[in-house]
Amino acid sequence: MQHTGMSTSIRKDSEAVRDFLSCATPDAWVQAAARPENLPTLLIDHANCEKKAASTALALMHRYTDQHRLLNRMSRLAREELRHFEQVLAIMRRRDIVYTSVSASRYAGALHECVRRAEPGRLVDTLLIGAIIEARSCERFAALAPWLDDELSTFYRSLLKSEARHFQDYLALAAEAAGSKEVEERLQFLLSAEAGLVQSADTELRFHSGVPAAPPKN
Fold first, then answer.
1. What SUPFAM superfamilies does the record tag this protein with (predicted)?
2. Closest Cα partner for 112 from 104, 102, 122?
3. What is the sign of the dihedral through the CA atoms of 203, 25, 194 and 123?
4. What is the residue-wise DSSP string for 108-166?
5. How far are the Cα atoms of 89, 141, 148, 166, 179 from residue 153, in angstroms, in the given order?
6. How far is residue 132's CA from residue 175's CA, in Å, rounded to a whole number?
């Protein structure tokens, strides 16, 4: 009964994420990401994403020290993201994958270029982008899991609930920082920008990259 309840909860979380995002991850990205030869790069970039997620939460804690609820939620989120980072590292060690340097995708940087500079717009946009990134991560874990080996499939499914909670935490904090009309308007703008990033071509495969570009013809 406990397993059934957990599966139902994960399914509901995945449905909420799919409803939130403007588009699904293109099949071409899933097929490329699931190829065995691409998994080392994907895992390295996944580890980087977990570090960046923790760093974002800590940066918000440093910048907005007067917001008690934000401090508590970001503190918990940072701890969870660092725990996920440790789990990815353990998987990499078991597979003899060296943690080498890989370039970041254009995804997060392009989204953060949309952030307004003046407060409280800066905070609202940063929180909404946090929600979008967490939602996309959750959606991609679910999309990849059926195509991976047992260890990675189990691991990615185990991350779904926490990633879905993170996206909901970011949304709740954004709603507290601004009126519902402003949040809805900015969210639609940012979701549209995000959809453009994941549906357009990217030359390098990363966890949040767009559709893999076709190799040049000779």
1. Ferritin-like
2. 122
3. negative
4. HHHHHTT--SSTTHHHHHHHHHHHHHHHHHHHHHHHHGGGS-HHHHHHHHHHHHHHHHH
5. 16, 8, 5, 20, 39
6. 14
Kindly report the backbone phi and psi dihedral angles of residue 208, in degrees, each rounded to the nearest multiple of 5, phi listed first: -115, 20
Write down the residue that tokens 């990259």 correspond to.
209
Query: The domain 24-204: what is its CATH number?
Result: 1.20.1260.10
Strands 201-202 and 211-212, sheet pairing = parallel
Amino acid found at 111: L
Q: How far is CA 115 from the centre of its chain?
A: 17
pLDDT digits (tens, 9 = 90+) for 149-163: 999 999 999 999 888
- pLDDT by residue (tens digit) across 177-201? 998 899 999 999 999 999 999 999 9
Contact residues for 78 (Cβ-Cβ < 8 A; gap 6+)? 53, 54, 57, 58, 61
End-to-end CA distance of the chain: give it in Å, rounded.
57
**Residue in the block written with tokens 């994958």:** 97
Cα–Cα nearest to 14, from 147, 168, 148, 149: 168
